Structures are given as C-alpha cells and as structure tokens.
Amino acid sequence: MSNSDSMAIPEIIKLPRILDDRGNLSIIEELIHVPFKIKRTYWIYDVPGGERRGGHAYKKHREFIVALSGSFDVILHDGKKEFRFNLNRSYYGLYVPPMFWREMDNFSTNALALVVADDSYDEDEYIRDFEEFTQKRYGE
Ligand code: TYD
Question: Residue whose CA is closest, atom 17 of ligand 1?
C-alpha cells in the first residue's frame, strides 16, 4: 500500500490471495490492506438490471469497495474529472477517499458489492447534491 499522502486519491488495492485447490481465500485487515480502521461493513446485492446506486459524497468517511461476486463500475468524480473503475475480481478493491462524488452502475446479475467503512452510518456525512459538493470541495 502507498504512503498516507497518496490516500487522498482513489486507488485500486490488490488484496492477498491464498490459492488453494479447495478454493481460494482473500483477506481485508484494517490498517494493513485498507488505510483505515474498519468500523462498519455493508453490502449491496439484488441490484436490478440497469439500476444505479450512490449519487453522493462523504465529507470525511473513507470506504473500500470489493466486488465479492459479479462485476460493477464505481464512478468517482472530484468535481472536475470523472474516474470509472470496473470491479470484477474479489481480490481487488477500490479505496474511496472523502469528498469524491460516487456512483455505481453496470451491475452484473448476482453482483455483490462489499463496502467497508471507517465510521458509523451518519446521514450528516452525506452530500447528496452535486452542486453543493463542488462548492464544498473547491470553495467556489
Ligand atoms: P446510501 O448510502 O444512499 O446507498 P447507495 O450509496 O448505495 O445508493 O444508503 C441507502 C439507504 O440505506 C439510506 O436510506 C441510508 C441507509 N443506510 C443505513 O441505514 N446504514 C448504512 O450503513 C448505509 C450505507 C445506508
């Protein structure tokens, strides 16, 4: 994993893989494979074809997203530029820093998105208006 300075930008992180004829195993340990302590885990599943998730930014929360099964895209926007990540392996995850507008789309059938987060759910952490997000990010 890179040093803490680079943690202000989104990053694909490769997780360990313990390959085994009986089936493979991967791991996420806080502060080792993700650059934060893990407070909360949730998952997104049964997404109907063509649906989108997200449409918000977090003020301070950091997250790490893994496609445990199937595939989907995570689109991150810094207010100026858009970055699209296709997640399709259970041993790669996307680190999402605070203050990135985030959407998820292109879910395959049976896609399962695991999200680990550094803090508890708090609706006050959300910015759900893109204009407000860009204003807050760049102080315009
Ligand atoms: P939201 O984060 O907006 O979903 P997504 O970004 O995937 O579209 O959350 C959807 C709803 O679920 C919202 O009403 C808040 C609730 N929720 C919780 O109660 N706890 C949680 O940890 C999360 C992530 C969401």
Answer: 121
Hey, whose CA ends up nearest to atom 18 of ligand 1?
Answer: 121
Which residues participate in catalysis according to the annotation? 56
Q: Which of 47, 53, 103 to mutate to test the pocket of ligand 1 (most atoms within 8 A of CB)?
A: 53
CA 32 – CA 39 distance, rounded (Å): 15
Cα 120 → chain centroid: 15
Atom 6 of ligand 1: nearest residue by CA position: 54
Please, which residues bridge with residue 41 across strands? Answer: 116
pLDDT per position in the chain (140 positions), as tens? Answer: 444 444 699 999 999 999 999 999 999 999 999 999 999 999 999 999 999 999 999 999 999 999 999 999 999 999 999 999 999 999 999 999 999 999 999 999 999 999 999 999 999 999 999 999 999 999 86
Cα–Cα–Cα angle for 95, 93, 135, nearest 5°?
30
Residues 65/87, Cβ–Cβ less than 8 Å = yes
Interval between CA 59 and ligand 1 midpoint (Å): 15
